[in-house]
Specification:
The chain has about 350 residues and is α/β, with parallel strands linked by helices. It has two domains: about 140 residues, Rossmann fold (3-Layer(aba) Sandwich); about 180 residues, Dihydrodipicolinate Reductase, domain 2 (2-Layer Sandwich), CATH 3.30.360. Helix content is about 35%, strand content about 25%. It has a nine-stranded mixed beta sheet with strand order 14-13-12-11-7-10-9-8-15. Strand 1, helix 1 and strand 2 form a beta-alpha-beta unit. The chain is globular, with a radius of gyration of 20 Å. Bound molecules: nicotinamide-adenine-dinucleotide. Nicotinamide-adenine-dinucleotide binds next to loops.
């Protein structure tokens, strides 16, 4: 059986996770990598004995490439994803899909026009703990949902912000602690709680010398009637593990870090399960590889089965829309209702 051929565009921080995903999927094969900085592309290509390019357009002529994965600064995901789809390739783009909804909608339009799949990376959805929590909630084990909270209180150093010119810029990063770091927690919160109806928020830049927010708080009203809060920062040092707390009329689930879950269900003894898994609380390179691997396996298997791969663009769009609503609320000092 011919394997699904992958090319990675962008050989920076997150490339290691995409390599783990592709190399760990038996039905997938790494064909090529691209980076405008030749030394970066060459280093990855030589290690894995694949072709390298410094221009995505040259790579897109390679017939062995079926899927392009986008690991570029967030504000150039659109142009590169559309080029790839127009060249007949499916696309998996890193989060956020793009920095505003106009650009995301152009990507979705291109996906429909070219009939090529466009998926967004949200690897936290693929952790076993996330899937069990979601199913328990859907099965009604928490009763009626009352509160859903996401805390993403991390640290990023001045050196991290200085490590690439696009970081913490509105045009290319799309925002700060929310759009870059906490976006996974927001996506997961909606994965568990459902969509948000309205937000009221404050976004501030308290510590870092950056034009985007390094700290934000939002109050949420979910469509199902539950309420919730989001707290996100990259300014507390050391960073805390990410935490999600889901409360219902029959119990509470606390997801601490990535896999560490506490269950407090009415009539049952408290239960803790899972293992501590390294996260990116203080170190941007400590992104757990298991989530990307699970998402790449699921993507490849769906493609081969002729199904829509998980986290289609329409799903990946939701977290960006919520973050943009939070920014708008903070800017305009009022409640913002969704959809925008
Ligand atoms: N899923 C996650 O947990 C996670 C973690 C980190 C980053 N990300 C996302 O991944 C993306 C990349 O982030 P990063 O931290 O790896 O960035 P980075 O700056 O470390 O890497 C980006 C790479 O793209 C290259 N590049 C820039 N313009 C290019 C172009 N036109 N053509 C080819 N190569 C080009 C750069 O030379 C660089 O090597 C961002 O969207 C970010 O939000 C996701």
């Amino acid at each position: 059986m011919k394997k699904v051929g992958f090319a990675i565009v962008g050989c920076g921080n997150i490339v290691a996770n995409h390599l783990s995903g592709i190399l760990g999927t038996p039905e997938a094969e790494l064909i090529a990598v691209v980076d405008i900085v030749e030394a970066k592309a060459k280093a990855v290509a030589e290690k894995h004995k694949v072709k390298y390019y410094t221009d995505i357009k040259d790579m897109l002529r390679n017939k062995d490439v079926d899927v392009v994965t986008i690991c570029l600064p967030s504000g150039i995901h659109m142009e590169n994803s559309i080029l790839a789809m127009e060249a007949g390739k499916h696309v998996i783009s890193e989060k956020p899909l793009e920095v505003n909804l106009e650009k995301i909608d152009k990507m979705i339009e291109a996906s429909k026009r070219t009939k090529k799949h466009l998926a967004g990376i949200f690897q936290s959805r693929f952790y076993e703990s996330s899937l069990i929590i979601r199913k328990s909630i859907q099965d009604g084990k928490l009763g009626k949902l009352v509160l859903g909270d996401a805390y993403n209180k991390w640290y990023r150093s001045p050196e991290y912000y200085a490590s690439a010119g696009w970081r913490a810029t509105w045009d290319l990063d799309g925002g700060g602690a929310l759009m870059n770091q906490a976006i996974h927690a927001l996506d997961l919160l909606m994965f568990f709680m459902g969509e948000v109806e309205a937000v009221t928020a404050y976004c501030e830049t308290i510590i870092h010398k950056i034009p985007v927010e390094d700290t934000a708080i939002a109050i949420l009203k979910f469509k199902n009637g539950a309420l919730g809060t989001i707290e996100a920062t990259t300014s507390i040092n050391p960073g805390e593990e990410r935490k999600l707390e889901i409360h219902g009329s029959k119990g509470t689930i606390i997801l601490n870090g990535f896999q560490d879950v506490t269950w407090k269900m009415v009539g049952q003894p408290e239960k803790k399960e899972g293992a501590a898994v390294a996260g990116g609380a203080s170190d941007p390179l400590a992104v757990y590889h298991g989530g990307h691997l699970a998402q790449f396996k699921a993507f490849t298997r769906a493609l081969l089965a002729g199904e829509v791969p998980p986290v289609p663009a329409s799903e990946a769009r939701k977290a960006v829309e919520l973050i943009l609503a939070i920014y708008k609320s903070s800017r305009e000092k009022k409640e913002i209702r969704l959809p925008l």
